[in-house]
Write a structure and sequence with these properties.
about 130 residues, about 0% strand, mainly alpha
Length: about 130
């Protein structure tokens, strides 16, 4: 049993959703990109929660994964948000032209995702 109750995990998930929506909408340059990032919480609810429930995971663990997933996207994208936003804007304006990858952004996203996943794995035993 988690030290947090299911109701408390629902509040954590709601807070993670709010942080995700604010941060991701702030760093996306176009309405289309903002819409797409706003759909991540919905996708998490539609796909992650039923899949976890079908696999027999607890509600607390499912909400933990959902919250961590949303916050991981924020950690990965907000620090390099301006460059990523500029690349998204350029790609949307010129869809036939391939925008070159920014090396720092690519490495930041890869290493921060790895760090977030490691933190998720290491923290759950302390929260369960």
């Amino acid at each position: 049993m988690s030290p947090l109750t299911t109701d408390e995990w629902v509040l954590v998930a709601a807070a993670a959703t709010a942080v995700h929506l604010v941060a991701m909408r702030w760093c996306m340059p176009t309405p289309r990109a903002r819409r797409q990032t706003s759909l991540a919480p919905l996708a998490g609810c539609v796909f992650l929660v039923p899949a976890a429930a079908a696999s027999g995971y607890s509600v607390s663990f499912t909400l933990y994964l959902y919250s961590c997933g949303l916050l991981m996207l924020v950690i990965m994208l907000v620090p390099v948000g301006k460059k990523v936003a500029a690349d998204i804007l350029e790609q949307e304006r010129n869809p036939l032209t391939k925008v070159p990858l920014n090396t720092f952004s690519l490495y930041w996203i890869a290493f921060s995702a790895t760090g977030c996943i490691a933190a998720m794995v290491c923290l759950w035993p302390f929260l369960s």
